[in-house]
Amino acid sequence: MWYPDWPVIAATQAMDLADKPVAIFDKGAVLACSAFARRYGIKRGMRSRDAQSRCPSLHSIGYNPADDARAFEPVLRAIEQISPAIEAIRPGMCATGARGPTRYFGSEDAVIDAIGEHLLSVGYPDARFGIADGTFAATQAARVDIVVPPGGTARFLADLPVSALDRPELADVLRRMGLRTLGAFAALPTSQVAARFGADGTCAHRLAAGRERRSLAIRIPPADLTLLIDLDPPHERVDTIAFAARAHADDFVAALAARDLVATALRIALRTEDGGFSERVWRHPRWFDSTDLVDRVRWQVQAATPADNGAAVGIHAGGVLSSPITSILITPHTVERIGIHADGLWGDKSPDERIHRAFARIQSLLDHTAVVTPVRSGGRSPAEHTTMVPWGQAAALQRDPAAPWPGRLPDPAPSQVLPVPVGIELRSAAGPLLPTERGVLDGEPHTLIYRNGHTALIDAWAGPWMSDERWWDQASAKTLTRIQVTTEDAAYLLIYVDAHWWIEATYD
Amino acid sequence: MGWQNPPVSWSELERRLSQVPNDGLTQPDGGDSPAWSRHRPAYDAPDSRPARPMGKVVPYAELHCHSNFSFLDGASAPEELVEEAIRLGLHSLALTDHDGLPGVVRMADAAREYDLPTVFGAELSLDLRQPQNGIADPEGTHLLVLARGTEGYHRLAGAITDAQLAGAHKGKPQYNLQALAERADGHWLVLTGCRKGAVPAALSGSNTEKLDTAGISTRSERFAAARRELDILTALFGHDNVVVELTDHGYPLDHERNDALAILAADAHLPVIAANNVHFASPSRRRLAMALSAVRARRSLDEMDGWLPTAGTAHLRSGAEMAARFDRFPGAISRTVAIADELAFSLQSAAPQLPHLDVPEGYDLMSWLRELTWRGARQTYGNPENPTDPTAYQRLEMELEVIAAKDFPGYFLIVHDIVQFARRNNILCQGRGSAANSAVCFALGITAVDSILYGLPFERFLSETRNEEPDIDIDIDSERREEVIQYVYKKYGRRNAAQVANVITYRPRSAVRDMAKALGYSVGQQDAWSKRMDSYARSVDHAPLSDDPDRIPDEVVQLASELVTFPRHLGIHSGGMVLTRQPVGEVCPIEHARMPGRTVLQWDKDDCASMRLVKFDLLGLGMLSALSYCMDLVDAHLGERWTLATMPKEEKGVYDQVCQADTVGVFQIESRAQMATLPRLRPRRFYDLVIEIALIRPGPIQGGAIHPYIRRRRGHEEVTYQHPALKPVLERTLGIPLFQEQLMQIAMAVGGCSGGDADLLRRAMGSKRGIEKIARLKAKLYDGMATNGITGDMADSIYDKIEAFANFGFAESHSISFALLVYASTWLRLHYPGAFLCSLLQAQPMGFYSPQSLVADARRHGVAVHSPDIQLSGVHAGLEPGDFDCTVCPPRAARLKPTGDPRCIHDPIITEGSLTWQPDHSFASDEHRRDGNFAVRLGLQSVRTIGVEIAERIVAEREQNGRFASMADLVRRCGLSTPQLEALSTAGAFSSLGVDRRQALWAAGPAAAERTGHIEDSGSPLPVPELPLMSGGEQSMADLWATGITPKSHPIEFVRAQCEARGAIPANQLVAIATGTRLLVAGVVTHRQRPATAAGVTFMNLEDETGMINVVVPVPVWNRYLSIARESPALYIRGIIETNDGAVNLIAEKLEPLSITINSMAPTATLPRMSRDFK
Questions:
Q1: Which residues face B246 on adjacent strands?
Q2: Is B827 helix (H, G, I), strand (E, B) or coil?
Q3: Which of B285, B288, B310, B1036 would you mutate first to test chain A, the one with the most A CBs within 10 A?
Q4: Chain A residue numbers touching B1023 (CB-CB < 8 A)
Q5: Is B278 within 8 Å of B313 (Cβ atoms)?
């Protein structure tokens, strides 16, 4: 069985990229591309640079072999249900013995129909099939979607070009010798081929002649450490989902423990009735026990559902789930030997277990984001100097704290950064005060007028400090000017942005 | 010589020249001749000439200012900075680029226009460990040095030169503070500099700004460290030569630092000044400056965010703005004015002189030049008492007088010396340029153009009225140019000779690429978008199609259009050398070039010219290499030795061939556009070739516009002059101005302009700036014309012509030198087509055609070409007897009798400049062929995977130890790999061993296992299985794969039957078909071209076994057949034939792929691509 453009199918499952040019890149070259991309002349093996050059609007996706293989897993499982002994040749292509199933289904075409229909029913249409004597020949047959009758393999192969051997250098020499088809190559005496082309040449010669020796390397289904929880009927409420997860969590942890393993990172995937999907990797400062696991499921549901389901503020990442959840798939992402994580005799460096328990408890009661740790980060505004990272989640800093960030405010830092800036009017003795293009104010700061109409005279001020930030990125661009002012009873950091002055932060 | 895209369109130009309305296509220019070079005009004020502000200003001089010659750091050109300084009313301006003075000439030129006093200096980067490109925050300490007058300037240039050369890498100068101080000796003023200056850096604890390292030292410790740094500066450079610099860019820490610096200064009794560390002229350049810093650091803006100067206030500020910022530091502003007054000087006063020359005892420069001229003249023109040409000596005397009056003898002597060196060493060279076409230069052997014979008046090239340095470029055999350059270095010394820089500037392509990179787009996207830019365009034109998903994003276009024309880095100019009396490095810093072992000035040729440095252009010319190889081959095999000077002049056969556009491989007139003009122009004498070169403008020719000169030349139009005074100027070009020189002569002849005025007018018009200046000159011109009785419409029409042609005409002096090479290459090709082919193949890559097309053309001229052979081939293609027994004679040294008519050489038929040639004129080149007893054998180097080095190894081994006995023998003696043996086998290089290609290919496997030390042929002899026999087509394909050349046949021959069945017309029959006929042609695509801004029209060349076909693909047709047009190696094209005076074009309507996939396809699945696309 062969899926044309499998890596594209695998990588775009969760994306809406139909009718868009898509290419999967591996080591600087195109590994696979969508039919739409082929219209631009993009093809397998082309340098990624050339592909992007032919089609600048190309959606470029880096190849991830693990994801690719993982995505192929359901297909393999589906086929195993019909014909248990299969060889996964590579993601998107597999082979199985045809004789057994043929006896069962009555004919080869019936086998193909059966597998095809089964795949269709689990959401994988458009597979291609080929049957022939030997994997190589069957692979070639699948490319043209035909069944080669028993004993007809050599004849089928004879007309194929030597490039089908997937040995470019050999094919090149053969063509120069005038041998352009597998048949012409196969007709050479084996002994002479061996003398001229060596062992690999002999092997290719055998393939070309349809005399493949290798038998299938049957896949032994992997020990299934993943946990798939089907929710039937689909669940809507966070608590019922968590409850369903709890029922399986102990088994999951125990299955790992039976292999002397613990999970330090998990991948949790949620699917909803209407095809919504949320996937996320969770890390643990130590390792996951069953309670932790249930908490993570709960948090992810909370984070990915509209905020009106609960009081907590969600982190709306990974797509919003807006309909009942049908399945939860939990996969160990990183596992380690259990020994590493056994408590040392006098404890170890990881956070105190009790602290961790307490925080995790709060998180499980409220929300994953309810307990956060401040981490120092780079940036120019006071708010950017720290990034809040949910407890137990690996910090991924966007702003390098080691860079100098010219324009960054020096110490002392403001004592409070307002969560939402408060609008204020800043005036000179003559009227409203604005920053000019040349980096100064068009007058002396004199008065502040608060939103409630109260005014305050300015004692002293510093600045203005203009900053034109991230103008290359529409989403985060901001052009602003800051000043510090003090009044009789307060000190503020003011910011001029979007044609208004705001209080950004206050000093005690 | 200068040439730029014209400010008027071609059709407009044509209309003005021909004075008839023209509705022809608008076809801008492609300029595909090597002589079109870019030339920066002298500075002209922009139309909105900046003016000083009205009323009083706060006097202020900016003393710390970077231009865009602080490469990828500054974001404004020196000229822009000067203009902005004027607008802001600055008292004076300093230029302080990083580690060099590359922008000073431009700055000085612009400042002179406004009488703005200039201070020159540089910011030196101390303690660099490596070049800083690619690093987010460049390391090192900065020292800001300002020169006190010319003496300080020379010392600074010298110090930078020493440091740049000591650094051993481009971009990594190596200074020693102690040595700098000694060098300065009181002639420099040192500022404490920006945040990277030693003092401010110490004050900030170097890296206080970095969050992680804050607080490593206490404030007082840092203060003490800064004080130590300041003490070091005053101790080294002297207390009176150090000033503390305060900078306020509007960052939160600026105030605090300035306060600390002021305290340090007060404690040390040093003055403080305010400066703005300027990096661009006005706030509008802020984002470009950030984008540039990302390019410099080789990362995207996103990755660079943490280092970006987001305040963007490093622009020029007025005195009032600075005074407001620095009101806490009294005197900091006014002091800058006093310092500028003390330091400023005019850069021109630093110009050097020519080097000393040795002349024999008793002579001075002029009398020695006179002596050398007489010596040469005696050989050419005979005894002065009885000369062969009565005017010769009179003319020479006149020229020498001009040379003496202009004081140029030294210049001529230096060129003479260089040419003599080349001659002694048998290096082919030829002078070119305004002075090169003088009789003196001919007598001195600098040029082979005898201006007396061709009647070229001297005044055209060097006159007393023109205030210009003499201009002689020397074109040299490109393979041997390096020897000449090394000679010049040796003769004048490394310190007194240097190569000028070529300022690599941003063109639309590179600008789009770098800005897309900064904005974070992928390399492929950068490729795609930059490819859409025309490589010759001057601006980033962009017609946004909002629904095109692949369009260039607006922000890329925006930034790129700002960036275009910015200097990116310094390269080496192709051959300009400057010679000076004092060390060059003290006039202009010298630095390392990227190429190892090369050093280069920081000024380009225009800077050098502006500074009156005398420059010699030693240019490599591939055609001279080819001519040199050809002359050597002819000498070796036929015993005939030719030089440029001894070839028979004005031979009729040469012009006959040129008229037929039979010029593949000939210098300058070989491209399709050039060929198209030949049957129209019908050159019959040397000067016609000179004109042809000036006329070669593919744009108008392809567009079907017929140049008015051609109309007159062909007698379709009467030759008239608008005024009798114009006749002497325009007579030689039939009343149509063609050359730059003529425009100036027009202005002088009828407008009463001086030579200098005329030159100024031309430049002013060309640059489209400086309205005022033009207006002044225009008034003068009209006055002059009025005194000659030219007024009203006629005056306007003459002015119109001058304006239309300004900066557009080709220089006649250069055309003349090139015309000689055109003649010489055509002459050699006519008489020795075999040797000429060998020479072109050896001189590759060069010219318009691929080796395959060159071979096909030679084959059509009766030259037999053989595949490379392991026993018979040299490294490069060579001649061997046409009928020889390869077992007996060593072919490479064979000498045989010439063929053809001996009169060709001894008494050729000479053209008389008549127009008698007609398109149906029969002409047989066979009568002229002298190497007819020889065939061409391709060189081993031509075989894929072999290359020159391995070919040399094989040939040397064979010459030393005899022929190879077998493949195994070859491997044992030369050590080749399996792929190399396979490639040689495929090329048929073993046929002299009696092994056919496929047998050889089979045997290549075991043969490659042979090694020295093994018993010979110890590998078991391999029985070769029966392999299919090769068809002719397969052999051709194998040749194509192995060498890119099919020596025996053309690929189209193998599909001729199929083409005939479809009714395709062979190339050589097209000329006989009536214009307007719709027909089908078939051929291999050899070129796809889209000349600069040709409105998108693509020109394609097809080739079949009978010749070439010019195809014009209009935009809609190209777009309809896009992928076929772009990808197919061979095509059927249906279209309409357009014949015009013997020039044939096919206007394409429909394109179809022609698949050559009959059973001839080995080794590739399809015909390999053979086309030269969009070069």
A1: B274
A2: helix
A3: B310
A4: 192
A5: no
CB half-sphere exposure, B682, CA atoms < 13 A: 21
> What pLDDT sits at residue A248?
86
Question: In terms of DSSP bridges, do strands B615-621 and B599-604 run parallel, antiparallel, or are they unpaired?
Answer: unpaired
Q: Give the pLDDT of residue A396.
A: 63
d(CA B258, CA B245): 9
Among residues B122, B118, B15, the alpha carbon closest in space to that of B66 is found at B122
Nearest residue of B to residue A481, measured between CA atoms: B311
Q: Which two structure tokens, joined as six digits, stand for B557? A: 């276009």
**Residue B829, both tokens:** 């090709």
Angle formed at CA A16 by CA A13 and CA A17, multiple of 5 degrees: 90
**Which positions ≥6 away from B539 have C-beta within 8 Å?**
B508, B561, B564
DSSP B521-588: --HHHHHHHHHHS-TT-SS------TT-TTSPPHHHHHHHHHHTT-EEEEEEEEEEEEE-SS-GGGTS
How many cross-chain Cβ pairs, A to B, lie less than 8 Å apart?
184
pTM: predicted TM-score of the whole model, two decimal places: 0.75
Contacts made by residues B887-891, CB under 8 angstroms, sequence distance 24+: B891/B937
Res. B35: pLDDT tops 90: no
Residue B325: closest C-alpha in chain A: A440
Percent of chain B at pLDDT exceeding 70? 85
CB contact under 8 Å between B310 and A409, yes or no, is no
**Lowest mean pLDDT across B236-250, B694-708, B877-891:** B694-708
| B1001–A177 CB contact, under 8 Å | yes
* B 495-534 → A contacts, CB under 8 A: 518-525, 527-529, 531
With a cut of 60, say whether residue B543 has pLDDT above it: no
Span between the terminal Cα atoms of chain A, in Å: 71
β-pairing verdict for B865-866 and B1078-1089:
unpaired
What is the residue type of B238?
G
Interchain contact A22–B (C-beta under 8 A): no
pLDDT per position as a tens digit, B281-295:
999 999 999 999 999
| Rounded Cα–Cα distance for residues A498 and A480 (Å) | 8
Residue A397 has pLDDT above 80, yes or no: no
Whether B1030 has its CB under 8 Å from any CB of chain A: the answer is yes
How many other CB atoms sit within 10 Å of the CB of residue A239? Answer: 10
Least Cα separation, residue B1160 to chain A (angstroms): 9
Bridge-partner residues for A332, per DSSP?
A266
Q: Looking at residue B811, what DSSP letter applies?
A: P
- Residue B416, helix vs strand vs coil: helix
The closest CB to that of A189, out of B1020, B1025, B1123, belongs to: B1025
Sign of torsion over alpha carbons A115, A116, A121, A123: positive
Tokens 């029913």, residue located: A121
Q: Strand A29-33 to strand B567-579: parallel, antiparallel, or no bridges (unpaired)?
A: unpaired
User: A489: buried, middle or exposed (CB in 10 Å: 19+, 13-18, 0-12)?
Assistant: exposed
- Token output for B627: 């001519």
DSSP letter at B789?
T
DSSP one-letter code for B1044: S
Nearest CA-CA distance, residue A34 and chain B, Å: 17
What angle separates helix B978-987 from helix B997-1007, to the nearest 10 degrees? Answer: 170
Handedness of CA B767, B768, B770, B774 (dihedral sign): positive
B136 touches chain A (CB under 8 A): yes
B587 with B613: CB under 8 angstroms? yes
Which residues sit opposite A277 in a β-bridge? A271
A374 and chain B: CB distance < 8 Å anywhere?
Answer: no
Judged by a CB distance cut-off of 8 A, whether residue B1020 touches chain A is yes
Chain A residue whose CA is closest to B1041: A176
Partner residue facing A178 (CB), from B210, B529, B1034: B1034
